[in-house]
Amino acid sequence: MVRQLFLPSEGGGSLRRFLAIRQHLFRDKWHDDRPIRGPITLFDFRRPDDVADLRESLLPAKSRRGGIFGGWRVSDDSVIGGFSSSVMEFHEGHETKGDNDKHSIAPPFLRWSGKLSTEINRHSHLARNITRSGFAAIFTPEFPLGAPLGNKYKALEICCRTDGRTYAVNLKVETYFPEDMYQGFISGTGLSGTGQNTVTADKATEKIPTDADDYGEHTQISVDEQADEQPILDVREHLKTRQKIISSQDPNNHPYHGHPPAGFQRLILPFKDFALTSRGRMRHTQRDLDGSVNIESIGFTLMDGNDGDFCFDLVSLRAVNIMGGEVVGTKEDDAREEEIAAQFNQQRSKNED
Description:
alpha+beta
């Protein structure tokens, strides 16, 4: 019974979550000598343990195994007599081996959907002086003793698909004040299922450079425009071709395993841009979240004041570093890129001979 509570036979559980984070941090500490580390996964529904935790949370309350640390959960203004409602559900993914057709590959994801209502319950207003209503929220499972990221990571990466509404991103971190919450925002930028990398900041909705900015259509347009004025140098063609080969073989660009996968977008929120709040209000004295970060849980809240249906799909959450407008990859990614580049250069030399 105790073993099933901490190490469930179906996978997942708070102890596995605790060990996964610390094993990754320990491995990076001793085997990654780079000054800037690669990403660390917090939640990813392509991992069996995270799927097991979500399935457990979807069971009726009486059928759950319980425990000290909660699982995935939703909340809304019904707790104060409001009329908003929301549910979460798991969508199975499917991957066809050897097939990179984005239309036949879909990653597994969590769908959080419902209806937001700003209507104030008359009885709640009279009994408890409720003057505002209209919110819904979803929370991840808690990390036992937190996820001690320290100052090794600078941003939160979210692979998701939104409906164009503005969602708050809430980071519950270890602090002396239990009511403190760091909050950022996902701007209302709809996604049409292209899977394009889009990076959005929080407070000032400041745009940050991304992979798409460096290697996407904007760069391609500028090169094509220059082609009409002067011939493209061989070295430029060489670098472009090499980058395309490396990118095509990069597992991070895979339509199923990639970040983001096909049909989703990647949003990156720097920790330093999160605002410190308490009970839903910004604190007068701010403390930057760019020092010793120890994440206890993550949440998303919809409170944009607009009545109607909403839908938010989530694939993964990672802590990442950004350098030169790109997410810093793992040490294995760097080694793989160097190997592919060496093979390309070797083949080019043979062709020239």
